[in-house]
Amino acid sequence: xxxxxxxxxxxxxxxxxxxxxxxVAESRQVDARRHGELLLPAVDRVLAEAGLDLAAVTDLVxxxxxGPYTGLRVGLVTAATFGSVLGVPVHGLCTLDGLAxxxxxxxxxxxxxxxxxxxxxxxxxDDFRTRAGEPGVDRPADIADELSGLPVVGQGAxxxxxxxxxxxxxxxxxxxxxxxxxAEKLAAGxxxxxxxxxxxxxxxxxxxxxxxxxxxx
Amino acid sequence: xxxxPLVLGIETSCDETGVGIVRGTxxxxxxxxxxxxxxxRFGGVVPEIASRAHLEAMVPTxxxxxxxxxxxxxxxxxxxxxxxxxxxxALLVGVSAAKAYAYALNKPLYGVNHLASHICVDQLEHGxxxxxxxxxxxxxGHSSLLLAPDITADVRPMGATIDDAAGEAFDKxxxxxxxxxxxxPVIDRLAKEGDPNAIAFPRGLTGSRDPVYxxxxxxxxxxxxxxxxxxxxxxxxxxxxxxxxxxxxxxxxVLTRKAVRACKDEGVDHLxxxxxxxxxxxxxxxxxxxCERAGIRLRVPRPGLCTxxxxxxxxxxxxxxxxxxxxSDLELSxxxxxxxxxxxxxxxxxxxxxxxxxxHDHVHEVSKKNLYS
Lengths: 217, 373
Ligand SMILES: [Zn+2]
Fold this sequence. Notes:
Structural class of chain A: alpha/beta
Bound molecules: zinc ion
Structural class of chain B: alpha/beta
Oligomer: heterodimer
Mean pLDDT of chain A: 94
């Protein structure tokens, strides 16, 4: 078994190879504006470091968000394209689950990432393997009371210390953690998400001035 | 490298997810998935909706094109993709897919220019482009006159619209006349029954001191709208067919006059016309007439190849392979304002050492008004 995991749903562009037992190689670069440029070179580097060819990959794992859309799509379309060429399955995992898994926390806690526009993507966990409910997108102040007293993992805690005073690591996503979680799930035969984005918001239906005019048929 | 390279091209600069496959100048497949219906109720392309649709359609459209072409992806000589200009988020989906595809297949990647692709597509219809080629690109997103001594390496902007694109003017006048949308085909049809000389609408930028090759359709649009309003205010019936014919004549008169002038000035004996407005029958007829009179050969691809598609990207990619142009590297960016003077984006090892953040403003093609189609 050789898993290739990618996640571009947060400012981290992260890639990892996992052989079913442990992480073989991993790359993580934090740069919210260059997902498109950084991802493929990172895949190439990780494979080279492991001395393996892409053709050896048996399963693809991709973080499906929630996350800011432009970057999120880079990982998803890359995984889908690899899946199509290699003829191997593409497994979707909630990006927040990767952060939760990496934290190793055994008690109730929260994962919160930056959703921009002064909001966070967040979900509540019973422990690092168990999410309690669907992820949401909210203003930190609106959920602070409900979540008070719980440790908060991820960049959301760093960005909004007033709402989330109990910040815990890690701050950034790691594809290694995502891959390790996927390996556990594969071994247990549990379900994955489809490799499609969790946007959580409807698109802004704003037509910028001077864009191509499109008219009803 | 192969004489007739087998190349797959991906186009996602606006609202069409296009994947084309060519062998040299022969078209093998042209698969398109459009999100146009989703945008229609907003009256224009919503970038985020376009990007979401590209992600959903990308892999299925690639697979459909391969099936239609009846080839194996392993046999491809290269993967080409629109690197710009266009909508940033939309371009990024295509560029990311192309990189993954090229990497997984271990094939060279060519990030190419959308406008140069619009010109190169004519190779699929009329064989190799003459060198140099004079090209008039007209659509809802661009109106430009380009001189291409070498479509893979040397494309020079002669002129472009300084305000509205030609296709935009058609849509706006159709709206004023309550003709519904899109405006191009309905105005073309009504104009056939009208008198093109009934009303003397202004010809933009045709004065002796105006820029010789630039276009302006904003003044024309206002003049037509005022003329119609005056009729309505006076309680008179608006002669819709005559207005349509006279308006259309004003547009195609300027387009063809300037294009032929550019050919003569540059000593180019043929003209290609591309973009969605190239489907206009009066534009084709007048261009034919004026080109014949001037001893210029006219080349216009069929309408399906004039609008945005993946085949045009594959056509330019195949030319890049045939001429041994350097491939792009895995860091290739989607560049929403890629200048028309850069037909492709070679990798760092082959770059011209220029700073990619340089000022593009001197090129009309990159004015935001001019990019999308
Ligand atoms: Zn176009």
